[in-house]
Amino acid sequence: MYTEIYLIRHGETMFNQLNKVQGWADSPLTVKGINDLRVTASNLSQIHFDRMYSSDLKRAIDTVHLMKDYNMVSQIGKIKKLPAFREVFFGGFEGDDIYETWRQVSIAGGMKPETNVCKIIDTLGIKEFRNATKKADERHLAENAKELDDRIMRAVHQIKEESDGLNRVLLVTHGDFIKSLGIKYWTQYSGKGDIEFPTNGSMTRGIFNQSGKFEIVDYNINNSDLINI
Is 0.85 topped by the overall pTM? Predict the structure, then answer.
C-alpha cells in the first residue's frame, strides 16, 4: 500500500498579478484565481480524499476550502494548517518587484544583471541561487539552501506522519515550494538546472511508496488536464 499526496498550488493572487515577490507575505486571490480554482476543484470533485491540509497562509487556506466545498465524495472534517508547507521566504524582498529582485540576486551570485530567474538558476544552480538570494537580501532573512532544505524535510516528515495508513490526501501549498519539492523528489528530474514553475491551480502528485520513501510521480498537471488523471 502507498499513500498519495495531491499537492495543489493556490490560485492566482493580487501579488502574482502585479509581479511582486510573494513568499510569506500574503495577498488575496483574484477573480481569475478563484475561477481557475473552480476548474481544479470541479475536476477533482469525484476523487475521494481521506483528509485535506493547507499551509497556514490565507491564499492556501481559501484554496483548500474551495476544494473541500466542491468535492462530492469525501467527508472532510476540520482542515489542519501545516506551517512547514509555507512558501519559500524571501526576507526583505517580500512585496518587491520580482524582476528587480532577480536582478539583485543575479549580481549577488556573481553574474551580470539578469531578470530571467530560469537563466539565473541554470547558471548558478538551485543551491547557489538560494544562497545568493539570502546574500542579496539586505537583512539576510531570506531562506538559503540549507534552511529551505531542512524545512522541506520537516514538511515531508510531517505529512508522512499525518497521512500514515491513509490512501489519499490533498494539500494546498505554494509554487516555489512545490518546485523545490520537484527538484528534490521528482523521479523525472535530470538533476541539472531549473524546472518549470507550477501554474496556479495545478496538481503535483507525490506518493509514499511501500518502503516509506517519498517521491513525486506527476509534476505540474494543469487544472484542465486533471479530468484525465
Answer: yes
